[in-house]
Design a protein that fits this description.
The chain is α/β, with parallel strands linked by helices and 149 residues long. It contains five helices and five strands. It has a five-stranded parallel sheet with strand order 3-2-1-4-5, sandwiched between helices. It is globular. It starts with 11 loop residues before the first strand and ends with a helix.
Length: 149
């Protein structure tokens, strides 16, 4: 299998989060439960706290800030994050226009969780618990990997 990242033969999943990193922690935790050693997880935090928490949840490596996200995002085969990562000024302003553009334009498959923000709402989507949303995203990753193998 050929992955975007030439440094590893494992699929690379970038997890992006900001603020306190709580959503990213849940994503990394569920990924590690499903794929203990089979994937590389890059924790990309809009701030150091978010990155640190995702690293404590057993991400493979991590980086913080706008430039780190812009540079690292194209290593990912899959990008798993709240939908706000492609909406400038979301997450209380932590998602800069450059981050939103970099994530939206990244070549990896984007699996975005439909989480509302104070300045926008997602309509026509049935509400599901966050753990269920993450589970659906993980199922999609498993299906994609099964098709390639």
């Amino acid at each position: 299998m050929t992955y975007h990242n030439t440094k590893t033969t494992k699929p690379v999943i970038a997890v992006i989060d900001g603020m306190g990193g709580g959503i990213g922690v849940q994503i990394v935790t569920q990924l590690r439960q499903e794929f203990p050693l089979d994937i590389e997880i890059i924790a990309l935090g809009t701030n150091a706290i978010a990155t640190q928490k995702m690293m404590q949840a057993r991400a493979s490596r991590g980086a913080s800030g706008e430039n780190a996200i812009r540079v690292s995002i194209n290593e990912a085969d899959f990008i798993l994050a709240p939908i706000g990562v492609v909406i400038p000024n979301s997450m209380m302003g932590e998602i800069t226009p450059d981050i939103a553009i970099a994530v939206a334009g990244a070549r990896g498959r984007k699996l975005l969780l439909p989480i509302n923000q104070p300045h926008f709402e997602l309509v026509g989507i049935e509400w599901q618990a966050l753990t269920k949303q993450i589970g659906v995203a993980i199922d999609l990753i498993q299906q994609s990997l099964a098709q390639v193998n």
